[in-house]
Design goal:
Number of domains: 1
CATH class: Alpha Beta
Structural class: alpha/beta
Number of strands: 15
Order of helices and strands: EHHEEHHEHEEEHHEEEEEHEEEH
Radius of gyration: 18 Å
Strand content: 25-35%
Shape: globular
CATH topology: Metallo-beta-lactamase, Chain A
Distance between the termini: 12 Å
Largest sheet: 7 strands, mixed
Strand order of the largest sheet: 9-10-11-12-13-14-15
Bound molecules: zinc ion
CATH architecture: 4-Layer Sandwich
Length: 282
Amino acid sequence: MELYPIETGRFRLDGGAMFGVVPKVLWQRTNPADEYNRILMAMRALLVIENNRIVLIDNGIGHKYDEKFAKNYAIDHETYTLESSLHQIGVSLEDITDVVLTHLHFDHCGGTTALDNNGNPYIIFPNARIWVQKRHLAWALNPNPREKASFLKENIEPIARSEQLQLLDGETELFPGFSIKVVNGHTEAQQLPIIQYKDYTILYAADLFPTHGHIPLPYVMSYDVRPLITLQERQEFLPWIVNNNVILFYEHDPYYECGTVKINEKGKYQSDKTFPLKEITG
Ligand SMILES: [Zn+2]
């Protein structure tokens, strides 16, 4: 198996919304805010190559936005785009066999589609199966007002009507060494890939642990639709992460690709080591 981090671009979100009830004096130590109180966020996909499969987990925000949207979210594609990051490792859009979408918020699935010359969205991976949780798709197609700004029609509708779409119903093993957990606090049925690589267990942490600053138990985002469920899910994941030396792959951390978790002297969960993925892939 080969693993590659795929940087698709950067953007910014309100720091307060990203840390829920946590006071700014605490969260700004790990995630400093800009003049608009926004924190820097990566949109880091993960490419998994195994036998004849080339699997892309999430794909960033894409390019189907206008100037106002770009400004509001400080979208930055100067240094990275999905296309350039794939190109760098010699993988083309046609090569991708599977796209696993953790969920359909715009910063996770926007890169699935682009606009053709007539302004119609199409799927940019002509040969890929697109894996989405069935309950999540139904939820995203009929969004509640609180989440509506994150579920964009131009992202979701082309996926929903595509013959490439493969619906998953709950937790499963997609192929040996690649299983999927489902959590329901951030949104309905977010799916989190768990990858067995060499002797390591890697959790694609998506929006359950978006950055290394989000490891402490109560550091739950305001965006989450069911924060108490997120808390429960973190209470289940954190002991498993610590006891099994699970490596978290951070989708949104602008500084660190990977990290581990420890219990500190006060008995609280805390980010431990942070390191680039190549430290384990060589
Ligand atoms: Zn999300």
